[in-house]
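Researcher: Here's my situation. A collaborator sent me these components and asked whether they could plausibly form a single complex. I don't have experimental data yet, so a predicted model of the whole assembly would be a useful starting point for our discussion.
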Amino acid sequence: MGHPHLAAPLLLELAHTVNEGLILIDAEGKVQLWNRWLAERSGVSAQEIQGRRLEEVFPHLANSRLAHAVQTALQQQLPAILSQTLNRRPFPLQDHLHNDAHPIEQAITIAPLARESGHIHCLIQIQDVTAAVRREQQLREQAQQLQALSNIDGLTGVANRRSFDARFQEEFQRAQRHGSDISVLMLDIDYFKEYNDCYGHQAGDTCLTVVANTLRRCLQRGGDFVARYGGEEFAVVLPGASHGAACKLASSLQQEISRLGIPHANSHAASHLSISVGVATHTPQRNDRAQDLLRGADIALYQAKRQGRNRVVSADALDLTVQPEKLM
Amino acid sequence: MELNELQRDALVEAFNIGVGQAAASLASMVNEEVKLSVLTLQLIPRHEAMQQFSFRHSDKICAVAQRFSGAFDAQGFLIFPEEKGLEIVRRMVGDSLSLKELTELEQEAMSEIGNILLNACVGTLANLFRRPLNSTLPTYHLGSPDEVLGGQIQGNDEAVLLLHIDLTLEQHEIQGYVAFLLSVDSIANLVAEVDSYIAQAMGGR
């Protein structure tokens, strides 16, 4: 070696002092060194494991990736790394040094040693990467929260327009692939501007939230979802729902909102808060576009408003070639 | 410097045994079916190899590198377009954190995948040479092909032993490369060893 002045006891002390786990394995696969860092965290002393194979003390390591990597190092002299993500805690190590004892996440390096002497050894180094694992877990949670937040309407808590556009497109394409029905409801709170003028914007906000929650509560099936489409406009997507089922749900939504009995003195449609609903259903073919289905529901909604509001109108009953502008 | 068909076939066969073992290790780690195969093998000048690494949809490549020495000196690389590297790790780890780059721990997972594959390939070569090779630990790189590979090779005397590989994870096929950058001496050695391997195989039949 290049450092003849380093005496063996000093080198041994060094191995026991480093702030990571060190295991030296000889050509027969037996443990020659088990450093203090490991003894403290594994509950296995050097005396207990020295001269024995790792699998004798840790039976779960038999035929493991770690065992194969040690073999490769000893036989082919090739090094290996065992990442924390692909190898969950190969050694049962506990951190007792902190108040909350916790299992130690490990990143492991395995390298052949001392080739020139002819006796091949294998060095296993174990690093504590618990802090990095926690950091990435936090990062992951924050990224998920951010993603969820960016898809939610801040006031009502239902999906926002952005998320509606993406999910509606997804569901439309799914229906296209499976040749199934897809229905859309467009809903509008009747005389909402008058409601705001009469009761104030804060009451208006509360009203939007109550309506959104009621709509959400009434949707029973997993794939159905409601989104705030515009100011006082909501959209409901019902994947797989026939036109009959969609119209029935639309009527029950309209009734549920009426049943809330929220007073609305300036409404010309009813004495309480009410909604108008347009319903459209389609079994999309290959070249059909999602926006045409939405347009159908929109035209039906305008028609519902024109007929006096507080009602459900089906796009099937309309001539959809009429431009929506003319219906206004 | 070119390989004839017989030499190429012999090498593809040898490497396929090696990557098959790597696939088995990966599969047992993730508890899923993993398939690995060598599609083509070429021995080409460095600049031709660089052209192949400029993948169409990705400016950056993601690579795991190990330096080998002993029977011959070589730089070994596992190379994927950046987005394929992300896909591999996230399929293997089974986590969907949609960040644009691999996190520290994910890079390490990628390094391990590269390590398993490169060791399998170099083990094949070591068997061919009947002499063990030494290797450094794997390192992870991300950048343009020039940034990742440019600094590693000096002079024009070097060639690349290029394996086009197919990795199938959860029924998704992902194609990439294993590349060994070799010096002229190493190439001559390699070709000689392949010839004697073929002669032996023929004689054995």
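Model: Some features of this prediction you could bring to your collaborator: The CA atoms of residues 18 and 121 of chain B lie 6 Å apart. Chain B is about 50% helix and 30% strand.
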